[in-house]
Amino acid sequence: LKPFFGIGSVGVRSLRTPMSTNEDGQQETSPDPEGQAALVSKPLDTVVEEAAPRTRVREARFVGLVVEWKGYMGWIQTFEKIEHEQAQKHQGRIYLNVKDISPVDENNWRVKQGKIVDFFVYVDEDGMGAEQCRPRSVLRLTMPHSEVKANVKFVPKWNDYLFDSEYFLELESEHGVLVRKYLWPMPFVIFELWGHADGLVSAALQLLSKDGQEEYDVRLLLADTDIPKVEGLPHSPKVSANPVFTDPMPCHSLRLQTTRKQCSEALLALIKAVS
To answer: Quick one: where's region Disordered (predicted)?
Structure first.
């Protein structure tokens, strides 16, 4: 995975019918003992498979990072240790099939390497898998170092896949949000909040709140390519004319200075626009 924003790139395995050359020098289809041609000839969602019986590990969701994705299946690494006899199978990773993706909204259904998701864990004869998997949206905000030191009292955790950063689970129970903090030497601190729209808004405002505060000063990071998507957002957020940094990708600052209610409205609109 690339270190910035947990985004990686993956390739999709090509399923092809084997070809051979006959006596006349013409190509012909070879036998396909594994039935791959049948899989390619129809959409994935029409392929009929006999499902193995599933048993859920618990009736509560897990949160994890997609560490490998091939377009139709992949593997998830959970942030929480799973206590189960099958937990060490497949290097401790959770299998995900595209059929088990259940997006919260139609704008955020894609899964890719580096995406954070939440899901139920089941066990079948092949090991552990994810079902009703929901891709999470992300808000990226910045805070001065002094405010982080004074207000953010979370217990840091670390993951081998999340380079140059630490993460916090304190906002999961109330907001359903995982917080990632980058450790880069910069004039400000970058936070990523991974969750679903309403939870992201409430978590962001909690993170930025101060005693007796009536107005909020919210600074978000906006990718250069997302600037056209935020034109017309409510309450007139200001986008910096120049990027606040350019490596590994150009990002501008989007600033909101208004009441809590108006911040909530603008943040919800932003999440919908860039998801």
So the answer is: 15-39
